[in-house]
Structure formats: structure tokens, C-alpha cells
């Protein structure tokens, strides 16, 4: 898997309501900031807004803050790249500008623990790691599934576990069998590992003399979900938190298809040269887990089943 957003695994939107099923913008209310730092986000149009910090038990850990590299501290407010179309992990809030979601809350809590401030900026999912490496972003926070290819490009700190989950329209009118999806139209987000998975499945179809799977690739996960609701596609494939959230937010119009598979860790992304910063993030996550803040954030977004206990830097993966 190259890019499960999950890395292939993608994302978009927070705990809120769907604002226009036509474009299926999944949005939510609530602050995305935790602790004493402020969080701001930049929309695709370039505008930005700063929101006040929300209440949280995440607090500054002076000992860990002292371990943050001077070059990172010197930036003042860190710019974080995030594909804000992957609810409930990262998505645009009701104002259409502020990036919110589970990943935003988690990384903001990490920043608070390390004495840092962060500004989330919307970006195309497949551009974020490049942006981290070029210095455009200090970190990438966008439901990146950790895999060997990504670890070659950047440091990745594990913080959550997700898998791939398909969805179909309620009642499964097309009788979709994920293990025999030959000839079906399947929606998927650009740049995700789900694309790799669908490509491999399609190859099995053609090798058996059957029709290939037609991948309907969209830039935004929210558009993938909209395609399924409208009937443009027969099924969609995305990271499990995103699929389950979409089902919840679409008022009973969708349901899961098949079992969860391909479980893998998500990772925060920082430059390959910033191993010390990655270690500090890992230590901050351990502090948040011990204090209960980590689990509280996952519970807020209904994702406690994805909790991990090992916040490893560049864990061994296939």
C-alpha cells in the first residue's frame, strides 16, 4: 500500500452535520484546539482564521519542551499541512475555513505538551509529504498510513490504528461483494492506498478473464461519498474511521460492505532530518496517553477502537 490515507486511507470532516448533500461537505462544530496553544487553519482559497484554544487537560511539559530542537522552536507557530476533506479526522468546520477533527485535536494536544503553537493549512493529500520535505510545512497531519515507502521520505510517528472499509448504499442494491467486485464502479480518493488495493484486486479480475474494477478517483473524500449517494459509483473504499463516520452522517443512506481489513498505523509526518522532533512528539503522545487526554480525544470522535499503546518513530512495517 502506497498511500493508505490511512495511507491508502484518506479523510475529511469532523463531528458535525453534513451541509449540502450535493457536494456532501461533512462539517462539524466544536473547537479543534486543545490546551494553551492556538490553532488556525487556511482554506483552499488561502484565507485563514485563528480560533481560541479549547478546554483540555493537555498541559505544557517543560522537560519535553526542552527537547524540542531549536530550529523547530524558532519558527514560533508551526504550519501543519492537512487534507481537510477527511472527516472525522480532518475537515473544514462550519466557518468553511478552520480545520477540525480528531487528528487536529491530537496534534494540537501534542503541540501544547511541547510548548508549541500550530496553524493547520488545507492541502491536497498527495502534496503534503512533499511540502514537509520542502519546508513549506513543519509537519503533515492527515491520516497518513505508515508504510515503508513513506518512511523512506520522512519520519513518521504512530498514533492510531485504522483499516480499509468499503461502503455501499443502504440495502446493498448492487449486491456488492468486496472479494468479487469485478466490473463495478468503486469510488476512491486520489493518492490513497486504497487505490493500490483496488488496482491489485482489479488485476486479479482481469487475470481471471473478468472485467476490471473501474476506479472513480476524486480529489476529495467528501466527493467520493457524494458519488456513492448519487449512484455514480456502486461502492466506495476508504479508511475505516472515514467510512464509518460517513455512514453515520448520511442519515442511513449508506452501510458497510464486507469486513474491515488491512489494519495499519497512522503516523504524524515530520522531515527526515528532524528525528529529534519526531522523538519529542512520540514522548508527548506517551504523556497524553498516561494522563488520559489521548483516550478522551479519541472518545470525542468515536474512535477509541483505534487506540494504540506504542507511539513509535518509524515502526517496522511492510
Q: Mind explaining what this structure looks like?
A:
The chain has helices at 62-65, 70-73, 102-113, 128-134, 148-153, 193-207, 221-230, 240-249, 275-291, 293-300, and strands at 39-42, 48-51, 77-82, 85-86, 90-92, 99-100, 117-122, 139-145, 154-169, 185-189, 214-218, 235-239, 254-271. The protein has 318 residues and is of the alpha/beta class. The chain has two domains: 39-162 and 264-306, Periplasmic binding protein-like II (D-Maltodextrin-Binding Protein, domain 2, 3-Layer(aba) Sandwich), CATH 3.40.190.10; 164-262, Periplasmic binding protein-like II (D-Maltodextrin-Binding Protein, domain 2, 3-Layer(aba) Sandwich), CATH 3.40.190.10. Strands 2-1-7-3-8-13-9-12-10-11 form a ten-stranded mixed β-sheet, with helices on both faces. A three-stranded antiparallel β-sheet has the order 4-5-6, with helices on one face. α3 (102-113) crosses α9 (275-291) and α3 packs antiparallel against α10 (293-300). It starts with 38 loop residues before the first strand and ends in an 18-residue tail after the last helix. The model is unreliable at 6-55 (pLDDT under 50).
